[in-house]
Amino acid sequence: MNPAQKFIDILYPPRCAICRSFLPKGSRKNGDAVRGVCSSCREDFHPLRSPCCTVCARPFVPGTGRDHLCENCLRRRPFFHVLGAPYLYEGAFQDAIHLFKYGKQSDLAEFLGPLLASFVRKWEPAEGVSLVVPVPLHKKRLKERGFNQSKLLAHYVAKELKADLDFLSLRRVKYTLPQTGLGKKERRKNVRKAFAVKRPERIYGKTVLVVDDVATTGNTLNECARELIRGGAERIAALVVARTPNPAF
Predict the structure, then answer these.
(1) CB 85 within 8 A of CB 243
(2) What per-residue confidence (pLDDT) applies to 227?
(3) Burial letters for 68-107: b for 16+ Cβ neighbours within 10 Å, e otherwise?
(4) Predicted local distance difference test score (pLDDT) of residue 30
(5) Domain with 198 in it: what CATH number?
(6) pLDDT at residue 31, as a whole number
(7) What is the three-class DSSP state of 44?
(8) Is residue 238 exposed (0-12), middle (13-18) or buried (19+ Cβ within 10 Å)?
(9) Is residue 235 included in any domain, yes or no?
(10) Is residue 207 part of a domain?
(11) Fewer CB in a 10 Å sphere around the end CB: N or C, the chain?
(12) What does the DSSP assignment read for 160-216?
């Protein structure tokens, strides 16, 4: 570390991006401040573990058997064939995503992106993926937020898989309400016909991985998958950083 960087560390010691506690020395990299996460917050991250749904990754009560289809997927199979997520959307991880998505802390992508890339590296359904597509934001929402968090995450995933990143073929053509706070039926209705494929030649015959930040009911990802299939994609997998816990427990 050069003298100038040491001086900056004295004036502005690095803090945890979630709880704002001071980080230990050595939390800067290549002369740039890295908005890291402290060990205390990391310990409050809860991995998504079996048993869960083999399609939508909905968690089941721990210790109740093997992975299997949930009731929702048995009744109405999603247009994506599988969904993967490394963590549950709770605790400090929920705080991290909330800050990333709504707190304008786009630098948290430097932490969340590599986590997702590490997961997809060992995730079997990612084999054969040739195109990575982030869930698009409506231009009005993009202007409000300043960045598309799904696109930032998808960049790390595409790089890990050595796949093409395509953020132009799938567009959000309808401005929708935030899914947070809506009921199950309202969520499905809210995103219905919200997306459209504008460049079908880019996705035709491809195995596509759709990337988002959080999956709750999976309706947003399902609508994206629906349009990609209509546009000619052969197979769709979905990937998120976090899956919401089962409300039943």
Answers:
(1) yes
(2) 97
(3) eebebbeeeebbbebbbbbbbbeebbbbbbbbbbeeebbb
(4) 39
(5) 3.40.50.2020
(6) 36
(7) coil
(8) buried
(9) yes
(10) yes
(11) C
(12) HHT-EE-SSSEEE-S----STT--HHHHHHHHTT-EEES-HHHHTT-EEEEEEEEES
Q: Give me the pLDDT at residue 83, please.
A: 98
Alpha-carbon span 85 to 123, nearest angstrom: 10
Tokens 């599988």 belong to 82
Q: What is the pLDDT of residue 2?
A: 62
Tokens of 162: 């050595």
List the domain range (segments joined by +) for residue 110.
48-243
Q: How far is CA 241 from the centre of its chain?
A: 4
Strand partners, 52: 59
Residue 59 in tokens: 């968690």
The token pair that represents 17 in the structure block:
């991006």
What pLDDT score does 34 carry?
42
Q: How far apart are CA 239 and CA 234, in angstroms?
A: 17
* Domains identified in the chain, total number: 1
What DSSP string describes 1-39?
A: --HHHHHHHHHS--B-TTT-PBPPTT-EETTEE-----H
d(CA 193, CA 191): 6
What average pLDDT values come out for the chain (249 residues) when binned by 10 residues? 61 84 66 64 94 96 87 95 97 95 91 95 95 96 93 98 97 80 73 92 97 94 97 97 83
20 lies in some domain: no
